[in-house]
Sequence to fold (352 residues):
Amino acid sequence: MSDSGDMRIWGRDREDEESSFFGTRSADIKNGPRVFKQVTLSTFGNPDTGEVRNVQLQLATYPKKLGDNGYDFDNPTQKWRCENGEIERLVAFLSDDVRATGRYRIVDAASASTAMLTLLENGDVDPAALGAALSEHRDLSAVIAALTATTAGLSAAEAAVIARRRAVLNELKTLAAREGVTETDMQKAMEQHHWLFGGQYVGVAHRQSLTMLDRHDIPLVGANGSLHIVELKGPNIESLVKKHRSHHIVGTEVHEATSQVMNYLKHLDQQGASMEQTFRNNHGVEYDTSRLCGTVVMGHSRFVPGVGRKIIDQTLRTFNSHLSRVEVMTYEDVLDRAEMALRFEEGTADDQ
Fold:
């Protein structure tokens, strides 16, 4: 509680985390011989997300009690309330922020909306400048939501996502074909881009603690909560495929990597039920460990001497045909599939 001149201001904080009531601030705007006037600002919202959904401003006048020095707070003579956008209009009126008749909207000077208006008023609509200005403000998500609510805005947003993904794809192709690149380099470049492995994946799980013994490179999460373990090896593997008698077979490193992923799946099978409960309680996420599978990504045709990509693909296809839950792919395979998906998305966007 604090005093500022003749006006007393105080607040009431939220007491229950599960309540939609977030708190109030009140002020005594008149403490006279006949009436008492008070204003209260209350906020309400979603207790789960903390999002404020409703703000109410209430003004009330309470009469003096007969034969008493107090006021009759149970029976106000006047009571008036407004909420949300109505409060902004009231503030604009009281602050004399109206230059002429018309319709007005209050805009936060620090908002992305103001940044956009400033650029448009100055005639500076360069896309790079507009993007940089908007990215610095806290209500960027609201502006994006408004833009994507229109057909043209949604198409533009989708085109921007595709362009960004194509740039990432080109960087990865260059990286995978570069001398001296390790699996650690590839993991750093790929682990934040789950879309590389297909649109059925919605994110990456907590890779450090899916089981008690293992640490997974990229544990993908499907839309249904199922897990897919991706194990990355380096692109520079000369013995990825080798000649054996009249045919080609996969090298020792392929067998070792495949066995490594098989052990990951075995441990997840054994510990899955308990780990599902752990992640549900500690992280609030739902993983389904009953439909596990894995992928090994390793090698690049550029680093396999004397063997063309077609033979590498055929040899891996033969090897994979005898596996049930694990697939071995080269970096070229993964990146080419991702590029085909982007081409499909581009074609779909052009048809709209």
User: Anything to note?
Assistant: The two ends are 59 Å apart (CA to CA). The chain has a mean pLDDT of 82. The first strand starts at residue 2 and ends at 4. The first helix runs from residue 85 to 94.
